[in-house]
Design brief:
The protein is mainly beta. The protein has one domain: Deoxyuridine 5'-Triphosphate Nucleotidohydrolase, Chain A (Distorted Sandwich), CATH 2.70.40.10. The chain contains two helices and twelve strands. The chain is globular.
Length: 194
Amino acid sequence: MILADASIRALVESGVLVIDPYEPQHVQPASVDVRLGHQFRVMRNTRLTHIDPVTVDESLMESVEVPDGGQFVLHPGEFALGHTSETLALPDNIVGVVNGKSSVGRLGVQVHATAGFVDPGFEGVIVLELSNVATLPILLRPGMKVAQMVFQHLDRSAERPYGHPDLGSKYQGQRGAVSSRYAANYPGDTTAAP
């Protein structure tokens, strides 16, 4: 069941659902608007020949910090990672779904490629997989409302919520635009050679 505005407000005010910072005016009828953070990661596509998901390659993406009042240019066809300004902490019986805001979607901004689901028990910022499907560059600014979080109750509490020691939850507690940790699924040394 999708949570309505009054339910979201009650859960946040009771501390069961954490949204920090919390702006009550960002609560919509069945979602909460979230804002764009300051850190972005962009592909270094002029220096690399391919992406290998099972290899840790720190040179794949470059980190860019945008100050308050600054802007990040997302070019047509470009992919970048961003993150929410807000840190979320979900209890073991609520999941989150991140969706783009209609107003920025109508300009050509997509906020997630496939990772729009937030497990119960997750704590951290939400990393946004930003794409520009328009034909012109789009200026993104830290603090702008870029996505919305929808929350749903599970039929019961998860037995092993995200962050449980048995799960190897790679993104628990993430801060900033965290790159893929897919290579952690493979044992042994998968570090790229220089």
